[in-house]
Write a structure and sequence with these properties.
By secondary structure, the protein is mainly β. Helix content is 5%, strand content 31%.
Length: 191
């Protein structure tokens, strides 16, 4: 944490790389040295959805999911494909101490540190961790929130899937929805 706020901007209906509505997210690193704001003056990471219709950036959450005192980014793509189905995904991108320094980037092992480019297509580059919905059309990742749910001092991630059908003993509750909680740990999310 450098004490300077950063900005995340999502465009879930953006169309890039010949895809329609794959979505894009910009992570704009704050800087105390910028007098006139221009994209060339800032460190900007661009993320792009894998497939047409994924709508990357439908939701965003920031938290320290691996307890390294650096904020991490969760990016929802509620309509993302997995194995040919629209299950929805949440991409986790771990931050590291000085994301603008080349030396620090080489020492870190996270996605952003491994990249030579600041253009990141999730179809070509895996995020640090992916959470994947269970069934097509559940809307997994349509909403995200971050908080320390279990009071262990490490941020946890809450993922909404508003279209999940929930079976019970009496009847199937069509599109009742579900909320999933993923607990942060010292090593991030467990696989």
């Amino acid at each position: 944490r450098d004490g300077i706020e950063d900005l995340v901007v999502a465009s879930p209906f953006a169309s890039t790389d010949g895809k329609q509505w794959n979505g894009s997210v910009k992570l704009i690193m704050g800087s105390k040295d910028v007098d006139v704001l221009g994209e060339n003056d800032l460190t900007v990471f661009n993320f792009y959805g894998e497939y047409s219709g994924d709508q990357l950036g439908t939701s965003l959450a920031v938290g320290d999911f691996n307890d390294d005192s650096v904020d991490d980014l969760a990016i929802g793509a509620y309509n993302a494909q997995f194995e040919g189905k629209r299950t929805g995904k949440v991409y986790i991108v771990y931050g590291y101490k000085d994301m603008t320094s080349q030396t620090s980037r080489q020492e870190a092992n996270q996605l952003l540190a491994r990249m030579d480019s600041r253009e990141i297509n999730f179809g070509l580059n895996k995020s640090d961790f992916e959470l994947i919905g269970k069934s097509s059309g559940d809307g997994f990742g349509l909403s995200l929130a971050s908080d320390d749910i279990d009071s262990d001092g490490i941020d946890d991630l809450v993922v909404g899937a508003p279209f999940v059908s929930v079976p019970d003993r009496l009847k199937n509750r069509s599109k009742a929805g579900a909320v999933y909680v993923y607990f942060g740990t010292l090593s991030g999310f467990a696989s």
